[in-house]
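Hi all, a correction to my earlier message: I attached the wrong file for Orn/DAP/Arg decarboxylase 2 N-terminal domain-containing protein. Here's the right sequence:
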Amino acid sequence: MILDLGVKPHMTIYANTFKIPNHFKYAAEVGLKTVVFDSACELYKGKEIYPDANYVIRIKHDLQVHDIRVVFGEKYGVAPDLEAPQLLSLARCLGLKVVGVSFHIGSGVGLLNAGAYYSAIEDAKRVFDYGASLGYSFNLLDIGGGFESEYDLPKFAEVINSAINTFFPDPNIKIIAEPGRYFVGTALHLSTNIIAMKEVEHLDPVTGLSYPHYMYILNDGFYGSFKENIVTKKVTIPKILSKKRNRSEKFSSSLWGPTCDPRDLILKYVLLPLADYGDWLIFENMGDYTLTMATNFNRLPLPDVYPVIDQITWTLLKDNHLFENIFTTNDMDKAFFEK
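and the right structure:
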């Protein structure tokens, strides 16, 4: 898909550390040179399939806090001070060219964890130094992604730039990142329709008194656009589009998906104004890992996508010739992020 868009193979990085052999062979055929590894198995596989690739070792930097959506360290990356030196030594013995280090702190990193980028970059510097002791000359550092679109990127940049200036002052080292969520998170708002509702009585465990609870069944759910958000417990509270009801008073509510699965639950408990069958609920900032992970379980259709843009932005994008497609250039210095 990326190649079909005109992106040059040398401008891409094969970041999955567990490569399907046929995919690995295809990467070699089209000249996708930069590939990531974090195990001896991948090095032996690479020696057999793609011995002249440029290899990047992935290290891990796990966080022991909760302000993060997905932690990658259990599956990806190696310890920078133990396993990384062993793998680099093996790569040297196999005659493979290693050109840099990558890491990915986790997906959906909150501001509380911004400082982790500093320590991860410091870890990468030690791996660079060990590589140099083996005769390697690394020139690439991939700091991964995880930046949420709703957070203030300059606050992350301040920490990251400080670490880069401290540990990687050499301007010849290319610094790249993978800010996927940051770019697409706000690109899509999801409109869902209440296809059914049910009022049930819940019992207050403290007072012993009953109170009304409203169950709203939506036309989208876990098997559609909400899988990632439900698993990572990041479902946002929706806005209700309705003129029929008083919007000030709020009631105990829950939101459910439309499938036959009783586990198709979006929000177990949320305070919402009273809504009606047929009302619309708007979930903002649903651009990341929503439609791309949706299925047609129970033969339910996926949401339609309607591009919307305001006149000022459209005019800017349409008429501004300063925008350059950096991904199709042959000049890597213009395409990769540099200090």
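Sorry for the mix-up. The domain at 188-299 is CATH 2.40.37.10 (Lyase, Ornithine Decarboxylase; Chain A, domain 1).
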